[in-house]
Amino acid sequence: MQNTKYRTFPRGGIHPPEWKLSAGEPIKEISAPARVIIPLTQHLGAPAVPVVERGTAVVTGQLLAQGQGFVSANIHTPVSGKVIKIDAAIDASGYKRTAIIIDVDGDEWDSTIDRSPSLNKNIRDSREEIIRKVQDAGIVGMGGATFPTHVKLRVPKGKKADMLIINGVECEPFLTADHRLMLEKGNELMIGVRLIMKALEVKNAVIGIEENKDDAIEYLSGLAEKQPGISVQTLKVKYPQGGEKQLIKAVTGREVPGGGLPVDVGVVVHNVGTTFAVYEAVQKNKPLIERIVTVTGRSLSTPSNFLVRIGTPVSKLIDAAGGLPEDTGKVVLGGPMMGKAINNLDIPVTKGTSGVLFLPADESHREKADPCIRCSKCISVCPMGLEPYLLMPLAEYKLWDKAEKEKVMDCIECGSCSYTCPAHRPLLDYIRLGKMQVGQLIRKRKQTV
Amino acid sequence: MSQVVLYTIITLSTVGVVSAIILYFTAQKFKVYEDPRIDQVDEALPHANCGGCGFPGCRSFAEACVKAETLDDLFCPVGGNETMAGVAHILGKEVVEAEPRVAVVRCQGSFEYRPRTNHYEGVSSCAVEHSLYTGDTDCPYGCLGQGDCVEACAFDAMYMDEETGLPVIIDAKCVACGACVEACPRDIIELRKRNKKDRKIFVSCVNHDKGGIAKQYCSVACIGCTKCVKECRYDAISMDTYLAFIDSDKCVLCRKCVTVCPTVSILEINFPPRRIKTEAVAAEKTSLTRESGKISDNSDSLK
Amino acid sequence: MDKKLLTVSLSPHLHGKETTSKLMTGVVVALIPAWLVSVYFFGWDAVIVPVVSIGSSVLFEFLIQKYLLGKKSSIQDGSAIVTGFLLAMTLPSNISPWLVILGALVAIGVGKMSFGGLGNNPFNPALVGRVFLFISFPVQLTRYPNPNHIIISDAVSGATPLGLLKEGMRNGEAVSGLLDQVPSHMQMFIGAMSGSMGEIAAAAILLGFIYLLVKKIITWHIPVTILTTVFLFAGILWLANPRNNADPLFHLLTGGLMLGSVFMATDYVTSPMSKKGMIYYGIGIGLITVIIRRYGAYPEGVQFAILIMNAFVPIINMYIKPKRFGEVKKNG
Q1: How many A×B Cβ pairs under 8 Å?
Q2: Would you state the pLDDT for residue B50?
Q3: Exposed end of chain A (fewer CB within 10 Å): N or C?
Q4: What are the sequence ranges of the domains in chain C?
């Protein structure tokens, strides 16, 4: 079933160039590299604690580290081989953090994992079992936020969800991983949606897709017609529609209150990548050990979508996509709007890596910042109704109290303000600093109370 | 005509008198009692409003001094012992003499010793760069060189050396207010005991990485070899995850540790040149040390 | 810097194509139709005054930045060109070039650079220059030439319709009678009347307005609220007393209202930041304009209205915030 009325969120937003270069490229599997680096922090929350030691021989899918506390996630080995050390390694955070380093030897899989390509349609597990399997599999939000999925599957007491939204927006320019997944794994996705609906005990699920992915909309709408309660909602193209709060507003018209959670308005959002991972975990008993990564860039010879084992170094993906372009000036993990620039090509792919983007040297520099002319374009594009022009100097001059009053914490760091500023001011750089400092102040205040 | 002038004078005078009366009573009604000693103490303070005492401005510090029972935890780093003695005199309280201190930059990662591996672009703020990644060298502990500390210094006691890309503290002007220590997101700057003739011995590194890793990105990093710990007879040097630290209260400035350090990460500053040591290695080391002596500028012309 | 080093910076890694100078160019382009009309009606004079004005504005900005402030010159951002062009558009075409240069000096020197340059000036620089000239040299500033190519009765020569109205009302004449002496609405719409260079042709200004909207350089909020407020307020006065008040359409088409609301009031630096703020600001300008026109000593009030509301902009920005996402109404 397809809802024909195109919707979008009402306030703010921008239209960056799309550059979905790899949209027509089918997903290709990349073989495991000789050595993988598995950071213990691939999710939001406490780092996982290793259950293997140096020298332990592991088979693909075996548990490497146990999630610690409520907000944390398990980590499994994506390869078979031997743990050679547990040491600090640089990861996407830009800093060295503890990681398990494994030398690959063969590709022997854990026998309990169902590796057959057949579709497993029957949902046998109970609600609790689904959540437990998702938790065991170490699934996290794969859109980039990497929030542990099992936490989101448990609706907090006293609250009720009545709708599930599947995020197939992929509003970041360049990225096509979710798009390809929707085209190639549509049947699996439908079962994944059913599983999440069962876990959340909701009757309605809406898959939100932007209209530039018309093939995916058509395909999934066809599949959804046979599925009661599941529908596809076409959305107008606008960045940052993939933001959770923006997506909920676009699909349902409900507005998540400031500082609140989506479930406060009865909605839970999951990414399509996560949904597919849930299918594999529950129906195939396969933990989250690989993901689809878009490797793209306008000077790259073959922009592609790869199915990659977690822990594969970025350099390996570059080789698979035709080598590092001569003129590369910047390498970004994730999309160009919210992704992180990296300085080291040995950084591994983690659960939250949706893409690797190469920007040519002439596009990787910022323009000189001019004085603010108060054109108020940053206000018009801010999807959260904030005033970036005001927040930036507040953070620059360390006026944290005022920044808090101006709702700096509501910022979702989408980057629309910096993108649009005609004076090229580094608005988001300072707003991020403000968020960090105000966040610390709030935590301190909570501790003293 | 004269009548108009007369009326004007009368009207304006009446308005004036009435306003004065209103103002007087309002002032009486809203008068706040304030300990007169606060003003006195405030006057004795240096009025740098640097926040080095931990209070927002000199006035709040004065209030705290008057309120507090003892002056033990209160110290004005700018005015030093002299000012505190004055404050104690006004309040009739005792004050303990505090050791004078000075800020020290514990990083030698100049362009030469620690090559740049990438190019950082963005706002000139250490705090922002620190939140992003290790910095434009791979050292996750070292100086980022954006000068947050220099900006925080209210006494013009710091500047960025353009050749090394590191901040330099002018000892003569430093009052040890601690603003730079607070500003540095990597805790590189430390307040140490001020010795005679501003002599200093300290480990000029804050890198906790293993020796082999630290050496990869910085040739003058502390590699945690513990040679200095063994050499020190005064138990002044401690080792914390591959990083040596010299306690300035215990150090007697014997300079033994400096000679054994294989990476020249222990600096000796403002000492007379050594007489002994003819070995080539030592000579090289001294030249290195002298070069990196830039880390502290103590030129007398500034005094 | 070694070229092989990768660049690392915070996101976003893309930037839109908008730049300050592009926005400024857009404003200049939008002014061209109004300027062409004035060239058509006033001839060569309408070419000389803008050239002098723009030239001296840019020169003064350059000189002040270089020698007084010791800063790097920023004339390439184009804001001085806009100021100069706007200033010229508010002046009569037969004005002496020396006055234009003086106006440009005040606009740039006092109106803009004394506050710290682009982005920091509380008042619209072009208007500061214009008002300075208007108050210092009232005769030169109100002695308008008659438009060429148009045959109109001698009665209106040299006076703007608004001036004529004010003069007549002072003499106790009925407005309804005076209106017979001014050009028809249609004539005023295409610019066939006396007035400053840029303000005469409402049609050309509206064309520029549409261009600015299409290019997304400004939003509709400020001009539309000003014009609506003037129309409604003047309309109420007219309905209440048609003898002493001109009809609302007359108010919209005469004087500097169109030019002011589209190009002056919308100046980025001196207008409010939020959409809601813009509406309050527009209403304020509209009300003050009509009050000055109807009850004040001057025939025209737009310039003062905009400057007065400029002064309120910081307060508007402080108290009128955009609606935050997720702001819930407090229902107890």
Answers
A1: 43
A2: 81
A3: C
A4: 21-141, 149-319
Is the minimum CB–CB distance between A343 and chain B shorter than 8 Å?
A: yes
Q: What ipTM score was computed for the predicted complex, to two decimals? A: 0.88
| Both structure tokens of A66 | 């146990």
A239 touches chain B (CB under 8 A): no
The tokens describing C269, both together, are: 């630096």
| Partner residue opposite C9 with nearest CB, options B116, B117, B120 | B120
Cβ count within 10 A of residue C189: 20
Statement to judge: residues B164 and B40 lie in one domain: no
B130 and B225 belong to one structural domain: yes
Q: What percent of chain B has pLDDT over 90?
A: 35
Domain of B133, in residue numbers: 101-295
Q: What is the pLDDT of residues C231-275, one digit of tens each?
A: 999 999 999 988 888 889 999 998 889 999 999 999 999 999 999
Judged by CB atoms closer than 8 Å, whether chains meet at C10 and B119 is answered as: no
Report residue A42 as tokens. 């691939």
Best residue in B119, B130, B137 to probe C by mutation, most C CBs within 10 Å? B119
- The domain tally of chain B equals 2
Q: How far apart are CA C32 and CA C85, in angstroms?
A: 10
Task: Find the helix or strand (DSSP H, E) in which C221 lies.
Answer: helix C221-240
Span C2-55, pLDDT tens digits: 447 889 999 899 999 889 999 999 999 999 999 999 998 888 889 999 999 999
**Helices and strands, number each (H, E), in chain A:** 13, 18
Task: Check CB contact under 8 Å for B122 and C9.
Answer: yes
- Which residues of chain B from 102 to 131 reach within 8 Å of chain A, CB to CB? 117-118, 121-123, 125, 127-128, 131
* Chain B residues in contact with A94 (beta carbon < 8 A): 132-134
Partners of B105 in beta bridges = B189
Contacts of A367 in chain C (CB under 8 A): 15, 19
Q: Residue C79 and residue A373: Cβ atoms within 8 Å? A: yes
Helix, strand, coil percentages for chain A (3-state, nearest 5): 30, 25, 45
Structural domains in chain A plus CATH codes: 2-24+114-284 (3.40.50.11540), 377-448 (no CATH)
**Is B83 in the same domain as B107?**
no
Give the pLDDT confidence score for residue C155 in this predicted structure: 39
Is B300 among the domain residues? no
3-state DSSP assignment of residue C258: helix
Our CA-based measurement puts residue B165 at a distance from the nearest CA of chain C, in whole angstroms, of: 14
Q: Residues of chain A whose pLDDT is less than 50? A: 1
Contact A174, A357 (CB under 8 A): yes
Q: Residue B41 belongs to a domain with what CATH number?
A: 1.10.15.40
